[in-house]
Amino acid sequence: MRSGAANRLMRNAGARLALIQMVIVVTAFLLAGYLTQVAIRRLEQGEIREHVQGEAASLRDEIRQKGIGHLPYTVAKRTRLWRGFEYRLVSRQGVLLAGRLPDPGVVGWTELDGVPSHHGEPDHRFLVLTETLFNGSRLSVGQDMAIAAGQTAAVNRILLLCGLLGTVFCLATSFLFTRQAWRRIAQVSSAAQQVTEGQLSQRVPVRRTRQPDDIDDLGVTFNAMLDRIGALIGQLRQVTTDIAHDMRTPLTRLRNKIERLQSDARPHPPLARAIGDLDDDVGEILRTFDALLQLAEIETHNGVMAFAPVDLGNIALDVAEAFRPDIEASGRHLQASGEAWLVAADSALLTQVCANLLENALRHTPSGTTIQVRVEREGQGARLLVADDGPGVNPEDRQEALKPFVRLDRSRTTKGSGLGLSIVAAIAARHGARLELGDARPGLRVALAFPVAVWAGPKAPEPGVPGAPLSL
After folding, report:
1. How far apart are CA 143 and CA 46, in angstroms?
2. 400, 408 in Cβ contact below 8 A?
3. Half-sphere exposure of 56 toward its Cβ, with a 13 Å CA cutoff?
């Protein structure tokens, strides 16, 4: 669950920008800390060198004033009193005369590790200067670098604290300044999602300000695009409706003339059959135009409408019984069962849904197929199921089958306009219901699910069993 929230956060461009800023700030402070440490180390080493050189010069003054023979006593005394330095005095023959420093091994400057401090702590690091005196003896003077290291550590802690404060400040300011931008971008994304679901009336809120920013410009452009798309779709629907209206009248007159010709041609059976086929073709064209007009009327209403409660189970059973004679006459079998669930819907449109689904199953399944119609509970709602054990529809073709005028290869030899499932999908969208095409194993299963339903039967079934009433 946390990983999901983290993934959603990282998908946010503002969050990624804040993270990048934080990484830049931390990297800048780390680089500054490293450069500062190098600079402080050089400065402190220079200061230690000056101190060591000053102490060595003091010992040389002692030699000039009191002689070389007094030097071991002076070194021992200064080692005992400890003035911040450690010493080593070795005779010409290599005998240790005074001091506690290890042998540096070379003349000049060197750094020695593992030197005990004045307080007895081991593993200290000293910067040592070794000189050869005029009588051949060697004098080494060194100072502990732990003091400088402590100062460097203190500076590093301060830089680390500043880095943490800078990171927190960067995140806080990024959140404060980009929170509103994130919210407005989310509104654009939400509007785009609702448009993809068919709500073409949705628009992006745009601020009324004298100085619009780039997000305002995006919202204005997005709304203008939606206005243009809505106008084009409206024009297309209007043209489709006008054509359907204009063509329906002459086609109706043509069909009436064909019916008169058919009555006159009864003495001539071949001619009567040809005229009858012509009448069927014109009737199919008229049904296509009727379907176009109905689809245009349904899609004209955007969003979910306010409907009255209707009994979904009763409508499904009534339509199934009306189709039963045709289904059984074609050699198919019908099984219908419906629970009494009230849903907010238009009864005429639900009747159209049931009729289209049964007609679709009747047209595109072979003889001997069993067609099932059920109304049952689903969560807090109810669903209408129409399934068959026919050839079914391939998973990759199911969404295509819901589009207008789409007829799958297998169904091109059958009659139909390719608008039946499109009308069902439009009715489902208008009611806020979920339409799914699935696998009946074998065959096709079409489910129309309503999110909210109320039990309307004469006796409420027990909770936990199919058809149990809901607490709404």
Report:
1. 12
2. yes
3. 23
* Type and span of the H or E element at 85: strand 85-90
Cis amide prior to 404 (ω within 30 degrees)? no
For residue 132, what are its two tokens?
Answer: 């050869």
Percent of the chain's residues with pLDDT above 90? 3
DSSP state of 102: P
DSSP per-residue string spanning 373-401: EEEEEETTEEEEEEEESSS---GGGHHHH
Which residue intervals of 197-268 are DSSP H helices?
214-264
- Report residue 162 as tokens: 């500043």
DSSP states of 132-201 as a string? E-TTS-EEEEEEESHHHHHHHHHHHHHHHHHHHHHHHHHHHHHHHHHHHHHHHHHHHHHHHHHHHTT-TT
- Residue 60 Cα distances to 102, 137, 212, 215, 434, angstroms: 21, 13, 79, 78, 99
Q: Which of 435, 448, 426 is nearest to 375 (CA)?
A: 448
Q: Which residue has the higher pLDDT, 202 or 466?
A: 202
What is the 3-state secondary structure of 279-343? Answer: HHHHHHHHHHHHHHHHHHHHHHCCCCCCCEEEEHHHHHHHHHHHHHHHHHHCCCEEEEEECCEEE
Q: What's 460's DSSP letter?
A: P
> What values do phi and psi take at 323, rounded to 5?
-90, -10
The span from the CA of 146 to the CA of 151, in Å, is: 9
Amino acid of residue 280: D
Residue type, 230: G
Residue owning tokens 């689903």: 378
Q: Which residues pair with 109 in a beta bridge?
A: 129
Gap between the Cα atoms of 87 and 142, Å rounded: 6
- Whether residue 462 is predicted with pLDDT greater than 60 in this model: the reply is no
**How many C-beta atoms lie closer than 10 Å to residue 194's C-beta?**
15
Q: Report d(CA 296, CA 307) in Å as an integer.
A: 19
pTM over 0.70: no
Distance CA 267, CA 269 (A): 6
DSSP state of 103: P
Domains and CATH numbers, the chain: 13-150 (3.30.450), 214-300 (1.10.287), 308-455 (3.30.565.10)
Select the more confidently predicted residue: 284 or 105: 105
Q: Report d(CA 95, CA 99) in Å as an integer.
A: 12
